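Exercise: predict the structure of this protein bound to 2-keto-3-deoxygluconate.
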Amino acid sequence: MKLDVVTLGESMIQLNAKTIGPLETVREWEQHAAGAESNFAVGVVRMGLKAGWISRLGKDGFGRYIVQVIKENGVDVSQVKFDPSAPTGIYFIWHPKEGESVVKYYRKGSAASKLSPRDIKKRYIKNSRWLHLTGITPALSDSCSEACFKAIEYAHDFELKISFDVNWRKVLWRSVSEARKVFEKIAKEVDLVKIGIEGFNQIWRRSLSPKDACKFLSKRFNCEALVTKERDAYACSKNEVVHERAMKVKVVDPVGAGDAFLAGYVASRLKGYSMRESLRIANVIGATVCTRRGDIEAIPTWDEIQSKFNL
Ligand code: KDG
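Solution:
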């Protein structure tokens, strides 16, 4: 099967609190399948394109549940392996206040952290036109980091475009400077970098506005850049800076919104839309995802977007 986009990374069982309040008050949890890269792949499929996801899951009921959900959402899962010697990762999200989400992972030693360059098949990358990576995968283990660089090597061999969502997860790194070194090494190889402004300022130790951060990244890595601040977003290239204001929505759970936002942007660019149009589409998608618990459930379809935008 020819793919538009291929990605790799960990997906986990997400247990999302059904009530508002501190962790010790939560009694009911809703189960979802979630992970930055599989969220992205589902977002691409909702846009009417084809996506594949490379990963490892525990050979357990959680692993089978995740692969079933991602597959039902139209993503090619032929490159997902089940590992009998390591578990599927789990994480919890709870909401101390309305619209606020706190995350706690139980993912150390998970099956996905054993991903390695051997899991990246040259012919699978060759079959696609875009590679998507996040800054989460290289934080999981040395072999995961090597898998990312192997995918980049093959993407260059076959002239795929590459996007990189920094997805800043401080708890997964030993130090900010270690993370920055890895991010810089990846960002130099890609066509599109995305980051949230808080992460940018922590990692690059600055206090820039989203617009200036966007220009900085685009210039430094000679690529298109996207910088978000909650639901407000900038896109920059060598010749252009575009801005989309945050949409007003009732935020229930913002986790996963950035992945769908970027999927919408990349898929729009692949469909030939301009930076401005792509950013508008992406912003609506990201804002919509915030309105429900779970990362992929609220991602709108291409039909819904077309009717909204008259495309
Ligand atoms: O972007 C959403 C992800 O953060 C979430 O689904 C879990 O992949 C995840 C991670 O590593 O944080």
